[in-house]
Each structure stands twice: as C-alpha cells, then as structure tokens.
Specification:
single chain, alpha/beta, Rossmann fold, seven-stranded mixed β-sheet, 15 strands, binds cobalamin, binds iron/sulfur cluster
Length: 477
Amino acid sequence: MKILIINPPIRLTDKPRHIPHGLSILANIIRKKMGITPEFVDINAHRYNEDQVRSIIRSIKFDVVLIGGQIPVYKRMILYADIIKEINSNAVIIAGGSAAMSVPELLLQNSKVDVVCAGEGEKVIIDLLEELKSNKLEDLKHVKGFYHKVNDQILFSGKPEMLNDLDLESDIPAYDLLPMEIYLSNPIIGFGRDIDFISSRGCPFSCTFCYQPWGSHFRAHSVDLIVDTLKYLKKNYGIDFVSFQDDEFMTQKSRVYEFCEQVRKQIPDLLWSCTGRVNLVKDDIVSVMRNAGCVSISYGFESGSPRMLKSMNKIATVDQMENVVKISRKYGIMLPVSFIIGMPGEDNGSCSETVEFCIRNEIPLKSIMFATPYPGTQLFEFAVSSGRIRKDNLHDFIVTLEDARDFTINLTDKFSDEQLIAKRDEMIKDVNSRVKPISTESCNGKLRNIFGNLVDDYLKDESLVKHRAEHGGIDIF
Ligand code: B12
Ligand code: SF4
C-alpha cells in the first residue's frame, strides 16, 4: 500500500512557520506500526501553486491519501481532492484535523473526500489502513472513528476513544519527512531557529469562541519525553527556541515546575515561549519559568470589558489581566496578547473599556481579531440559531473563513459591518495615540538582552518585523 500525505497551505499572506503536527505524527505512527514510509507533500512549506501540485501528485504512486488541517483549509481540501481524483480516481482520500472533524458531513457532501476521521487519528488510522489493504470502502462501516461516504450516503461508525497516554499512544512528529529548514528559518515568537511543539491536549475551560477537539480533560506528554525530544531537535536541527502551542500549557502547575527543572538542567541554553491563562498565573511560577529560559507567555485577553469577558465565558477578570502584565514586566517576559472585537453584545462602551484597559496598562495595541464563528464553537451555534449564518448555506459560509484578522461576519447588534471595521481601526489608533510606544532602540536593546546576536538578523528581515507587529505585541515588554 502506498500512502501520500498532503499538508495544505495556511496563512498564505505569511511565511510558513508552523509544522503540521497532526499529519507528521500520523506519518511516524504509520511508519512504525505498518513499516510504510508515507510520501509527504508539504504544500504549506513550499507554497506550491496548483500546477506544481498537479505535477508533483502525478509523479507519485499512491493508493491512499491523508489530508488535514484547520478550518481555513476546508476549501483547499476540496480543491486537492479534485486534483487527486483527477489523477487517480481509485485513490481513497481520508481527511482529518479540526477542519474535517468540525464539519464532517459538509466536507463529504461537498468534496471528493471519501472518509473523515472524527477524532484523534493515532489509533484509528492504523485500523482503517489495515482494513483497506483487503477491503473496499463499502465494507469499512465497522472500523470505528470515521464518517464514510458510500454511494453518496454518509455513514458514521462512532467517535474514536480519546487517547489516555500521549507518550504511549501518540508519537513525536516525523521531523525527517518535513522540510525542516523552511520551518526553522521562519521564527514564530523567538529568533533564530524556532520550532513549535505541542506538549498537551485538552483544556478545562470553554470559551464561547473556541473549538475544543480534544475535550476538557487535560492530557500531557511526560516531561522526560518533551525534554528528550527537545534535545534531539537541538542536536539534529540546531534549534535555538521552542514555541509551545498547547491549548493551555500552564494547566498543570506541577508539570510546569518539573519541566522547568529538567530543561534548565539538561538544555540550559534553550529559550522558549508558551501559552498562559491569566487566572492560572502567579508570580512564583513565572519567576521559575523565566529562570528556565521562558521569555514569552502569550495570553488571550480578548476584552477590557468585564461584561464581555463574562459573555465569552472567559472565567477571567480584568484584575487578573492587569496582574499578569505586572508580572511579565517584572521578569522581562514578552507579552503577546490578543483582543477580540465584535462578540455578541459588543458596543461602544465595551470597546472603550478595552481601549482604556490598554492605555492604563501601557499596552500598544497592534492588532485586534474579529469575533469569528468557527464551526464547532458555541459562537457558531449562536450565529446559526440567530440566522446570521443560514442553515441551508453552511458550506458557502465556511469557504469564506480565514484568519480572524480578516472580517467575516457581524455578530453584533450595535454596529453595521462598516462601523465594526472602522471601530477596530479607531481603537488601534486611539490606543496608539495615547500609549507612548517603547522606543525602537529600547525594544531592540531588551530583545538583544534575551536573544543576543540572533536579533540582528531580525532587524534586517522586513517580513519578520511585519509578522511580529501583526501578532499583537510579541515585542511588548
Ligand atoms: C497550532 C495551532 C495553530 C497553528 C498552525 C499549526 C499547523 N501547522 O497546522 C497556527 C498558529 C498557524 C494556527 C492558526 C489558526 N488556527 Co489554530 N490551532 C492550533 C492548535 C493550538 C493546535 C493544533 C495542533 O497541531 N494540534 C496537535 C495535533 C496533534 O492535533 P491535530 O492537528 O488536530 O491532529 C490530530 C487529529 O486531528 C487527527 N488528524 C489530523 N489530521 C488528520 C488527517 C487524517 C487523514 C486523519 C485520519 C487524522 C488527522 O490526528 C491527529 C493526531 O491525533 C489548535 C488547538 C487544538 N486543540 O487543536 C488550534 C485550532 C486548530 N486553530 C484554530 C483556528 C480557528 C485557527 C485560525 C483560524 C485562528 C485565527 N484566529 O486566525 C488560524 C488559521 C490559519 C489559517 N489561515 O489557516 C481552531 C480550529 C477551529 C476549526 N473548527 O477548525 C483550533 C481548534 C483552535 C480552537 N481551539 O478553536 N493554529
Ligand atoms: S480559548 Fe484557551 S482557555 Fe478558552 S477554551 Fe480555548 S484553549 Fe481553553
């Protein structure tokens, strides 16, 4: 059996910075458990155009195709499925990841995809591929964890069980199958050779705009596995920096302390960043993290309005937000924060509260996301039930979804589309006219204190400067 894995492109206006974790973990599992090395076509890294994709796929022999990603790749999965079937009509196309999982039936109805994985792929992909060796698609109804399309009928064999032990049941990405030089030369948060890593799954909170494919139960790789993998990445790929992209890296305090102790002992020169949550962060843990090489903790602040925070179910307060700003500044930790405009209930008053929050805390506002109802979220349910997204038109809406930096749909009652877009620009202008920006000299000085000479290359790279500016405050101290 010949297996082709396709990683569709994300964020076409930016450089490729994030490795495809899900697909490359599955590649490793397939290689180890079935002895088959899949052909990995990373369209995202290489930014191949349609003609190039066609000619590359034509040059490869394959029976099964695995494709996946987050919701903006929905439309690209449809395009690539057309190309794949045009070249090899007998190939079985299996899609997964949040784009496929959050709208499985819609994807099957609107594309030439044959099968959608309904959850974590590690266990079930092997069952499916083994069955495909001897059975046809029509006979696979009993393989758990998938939506199948057979003669235009969609069958669902039930959700796959969640993994219990990530170390035992999952794997690390098949780094050797990825164009690592491309990813490593486009830093995410740090400088130098920066790679992202996902060390846990699941989040105990349920913010209304967030899709939770991995549920509320927090599961994590062991500290030993994480540190060993980072040592491997340092030795084999010379990484300088790791950006933890977990839903919520700091959920389990004891794990963070243990990680800090081990990383400090075993890889003392490694710098790193992670995700944080304002209600989980206290001075003591940040001090330990900073000593262990952590130089940036990113937070979803979302709004300076207590009413809006409540309506998003953030379970976080403005006081807690102010507290983490103080703590981050105390330890010289960078503070990438994100804000959202346009949640249901947003009005001039709540926007002003966000502006005042930024001014009070001297946060120069570089970007604000538009509230975007991604499928699988409570916000999506609201947009459909309130008639803002037509039930009979979900596909047409989903193909419009891209980054939340772009306006897609208005969920407010108080603003027209034009007013909402203008309000965002006005808020950014307002904050920036009243918050004295940290001087370039001082900012670069602080960056040099942390990153040394690695920063000099950054100053020459306009695209990196732009990326950091758009990512709300990577350079805020
Ligand atoms: C890292 C990350 C990113 C990275 C991209 C990483 C990458 N190269 O793909 C960046 C920062 C770029 C990013 C951007 C965005 N992201 Co994002 N991101 C994540 C995050 C935190 C982790 C994803 C991940 O790698 N998980 C770990 C791997 C192991 O899991 P996985 O990819 O899902 O793969 C598993 C299964 O899905 C399955 N699987 C995956 N593919 C396949 C394929 C086959 C064939 C099979 C069988 C199985 C299978 O098996 C894998 C192992 O179990 C998730 C949160 C989350 N909990 O998933 C959000 C998430 C995926 N992102 C999300 C969103 C909305 C976005 C943005 C639109 C955000 C924005 N506000 O602009 C942008 C989209 C950019 C674009 N234009 O496309 C949503 C997706 C919602 C949805 N319905 O799809 C999520 C779920 C966040 C959330 N909680 O709401 N993101
Ligand atoms: S936004 Fe963050 S804290 Fe809220 S549910 Fe999603 S991952 Fe959890």
